[in-house]
Amino acid sequence: MQNETILGTKKIPKRHLSKGVRENLVAYSFIAPNFIGFALFTLVPMFFAFILAFVKWDGANPMKFIGLDNFTRLIRDTTFHKALWNTIVYTIGVVPFTMIVALALALAILLNQKIMARNFMRTVFFFPYVASLVAVAAVWNFIFSPTMGPINNILHTLTGIPLEDLPRWAADKHWAMFTVILFTVWKNMGYYMVIYLAGLQGINPELYEAAELDGAGAWRRFRNVTVPQLAPTSFFVLMILVINSFKVYDIFINLFAGADNQLNDSTRVMVYQIYNTAFRSLDYGYASAMAIVLFLLVLGITIVQFRGEKKYGQ
Length: 314
Description:
By secondary structure, the chain is mainly alpha-helical. 70% of the residues lie in helices and 4% in strands. Helix 3 packs across helix 7.
C-alpha cells in the first residue's frame, strides 16, 4: 500500500496533481521569468509614477503630497503645450505617409513578379530600419546640410537658386518638423512594408479573379478587394505607428540636439520634455504628471482605434 496512508481504520489515498495542473505549472514556469521582468521594470514603475504625479519630490528630500497641483501647473505651462503640439504634428505627419509608402512598396514588390533582384530590393528598403540610428542620423544630417549637402547642391544646380535661399532643413525651425517626418518615414517604411507584404500574401487570389471577371479594373480591385482585406493589417500598423510616434525621443535627439544635448521649441517633444523635467530639473512629480497625461492621451486614441476597427475594420 505505497500510495495509501492509514488514518485509524480508514485508508485515504494520497492526492496527486492532475495532468492538467502539471501542464499549467509547466506553462507558468515558462511565463514567469518574462512576467517577473515586466512586473519589476514596467508594472511597478507605472504604479510609482501614478503616485509621484500627486507629490513634489526631487529625489533627495522627503515627498510632499500636493494633490492636483502638478496637473493644474500643466495647464499654465506653455513649454509643455509646445511639446504636446509638436508631438501631435509629428504624429499626424508620420502615420499616414508611412502607411501609404509602406503599402505602395509592398504592392510594387509583390505584384510586379518580373522585377529584377526582388529580394535584394526588399533588403534595401528594410535596411534603414535595422541600421544604427546614430549612424543614419549623421549621414542624413550631412546629406541635408544647408551648404555642403548634396541635396541642396543638386537643387542649386537644377534651379539656379542660391544656396542661402534654399531650405536649411534640420537647421531651420520652419523646416525641422518636415525634415524629421521625412527621415522617420524613410527609416521605418521597410518594417511596415514587410508587415503589409505578409498581409497581401494572405489575401485569397480568387477574390481578384472574381473581381476581374466582373470587369473591375486595377483601381477598383485595389479599393474593393485589397483595402478591405488588409483592414486588420492596417489597423495593427496604425496602432503601432501612433504609439511609437507619441513616444518618440531618440530621433529628435540624434537629428537636432547640439553639444548641450538640448532641443529648442520647434523640435521639443513630449518624451524629451518628461526626461528634461525629471533628470535635469529633478522635478519627478511634475514629470510624472506629464507622463500620466501622455499615457491617457495614447490610451484614449487606442480606444477610439479599437472601436473604429470593430465598426469599420471587418
